[in-house]
Structure formats: structure tokens, C-alpha cells
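Hi F.,

I've been meaning to write this up properly since the lab meeting, where we talked about keeping a consistent format for the predictions we share between groups. The idea is simple: the sequence comes first, exactly as it goes in, then the C-alpha cells exactly as they come out, then a line or two of notes. No screenshots and no reformatting. I'm using this chain as the first example so we have something concrete to point to.
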Amino acid sequence: MSNQAKKQHHNILYAIVGFAAVVIVVALIGFFALGRDPEIIQGQVEVSEYRVSSKVPGRILEIRVKEGDFVHAGDTLAILDAPEVRAKMMQAQGVEDGAAALDRMAKNGARKEQVQGAYQLYQQASAALEIAEKSYNRVQRLFDEGVVSAQKRDEALAYFKASEAQMKAAKSQYDMAVNGAREEEKMAAQAQLNRAKGAVQEVNAYIGETVQTAQMDGEVSSIYPKVGELVGTGSPIMTISMMNDMWGTFNVREDQLNGMEIGTEFTAFVPAFNKEVKMKVYHMKDQGSYAVWKATKANGQYDLKTFEVKARPVEKMEGLRPGMSLIIK
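Output, unedited:
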């Protein structure tokens, strides 16, 4: 081989080695430059909410708040018009009044005129019994002397017994008038009154549902119906966000859970304020769906599941709102 051919061969080898070296250097640069980028976990701020709804159907008569207002527990939020409930109240009050009258009648007993009339009948029967007894005694003495027949004596005895029975019956009627109704009747009247009162209380509770008030402090996030619209039983009228109960929710693969155990703290970046906030993990739950699994290798040697991780800010950050992004690197 000539010197020129050898020189050309060496140049080709140098070129191949140089190209390979460039490829290796570029690969290393790419590996260290791109491979070092931290994986990003994105979550969002969430807040506890409760829905305001009524137990009775009605028409929205007035809405006293608007979206974005901060309300305190007990503040009036909306007023409903429910004429059917008012009609039920009139019916319930009528039943209660009737039951109360029956209860008073059972407890008070008969009227004074009835008691007086029963007493007069009792006195009349007592007088008749006294006369019948005297008549019988006289006839008995005459019978013993043989003046009257046995039939006359038996007639006088029968009249005496009848007068005695009439007196006892009149006495019973008088005692009944004085004592009033039986104890069982009084108890029945009281039970009827209690049931009527319960019906009135139930309707009062429904009337109370026509005025919706805030159960806890919070911010009005959504109002659904307009004034004049009908709402059914349990239909949501508005949603209140309790801004003092805020947390962040993250979906984290299990190979990224290192350092995110319950009770641990980490730092999250808030793009909305370009600030970081320290958060503490308080809840972790398996998502439980194959859709959030990820294969670690192309051949699917094993899969990585995704967990829902919830964390609360260690210190309150002013201006933090539901829906804002949280970034973990």
C-alpha cells in the first residue's frame, strides 16, 4: 500500500472517530441537560362548599346576596313564596283549636246547668225513695196485723225497690256530671291536642324553610335561580364556599410519592403570585382506576398507580383562591 493510500485510510478513520466523538458528546450534553430537569406535579387549590336549598318547593321571591359576597352564619340569603304552606298552616291551626276545645271540655267536665239539673233529679229520686220506704213500712205493719193482703205488701215492696234503683241511677248521673269525663277520655283528648300541636310545629318548620339563611361563614360562589323562578324540594339555590377551609389536591404517581407521606411538609409554587407556599400532607387515597396507571417499561413489567394527595397550607396566604394552580418540582 502506498503512502498516499495509507494517509487516506487514516483520514477516514480520524473522520469516523471524530464523528463518533461528536455524537457521544452531544448525547452526554443532552442527557445531562435534559435528564436533570425535575418532573413537575401540578395540582390546584380547592375549598369546602355547601349548597343552600329548601325543603319545600316555592317561587324565588327575593335574593339578598350576589356572587362574591361574604356572608356570616345567620345572614338571610333568599326568601321563597310558598302559598301552599300558608294554607297548610291555617288548616293545622284550625285542627289545633278544635282539639284544644275538646281537651278543655274533657277537663272541665259538664256545664254548671247540667250539674244542677242532675242534682235536682237526684234530690227528686231521693224524696221518692223516702216516701216509698215509709209506705212500704206502713203496709208491712198492716200485713203483719192481717189487715192487708200479701199482694198489697208485695206491690209496696216493688215500688220501694224501684224507687231505690231510680235514686241510685240519679246519684250516678249526678256524680258523672260533677266528676266530668273519664280519665281515658281526658287522656285521649290530650293526645289529640298534642298531635295537633305537632302538626302546627311541622308546618312552622316548613314556613321557616321559606327564609334561607347561611349556616356557616363563607363566600357566595354561585347563584342558580333568578327571582321569580320556581325551585323544587331540595333544589340548590346557591353555593357557599368556606374560604377558611382550603387545601391543594395533587395526582401523584407512586414512584413520586417519596417525601409526601401523611404529615410531611413540602413547598409548592403558586404561579398566580409567583410565590411559594409551604404545605402539609393530611390525606392520601388510591385513585382506583386503571386509566391513571402507567407502565414502567414498554413490555409492561409492572404498572405505577396514581394517588390523590391532599395538603393544606401551613400558613395562610392572602388572595389564594379555589382553582389556582400549584406546582411541585
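Notes:
The helical segments are 3-35, 83-108, 112-144, 150-179, 183-208.
The two ends are 62 Å apart (CA to CA).

If this format works for you, I'll send the rest the same way.

G.
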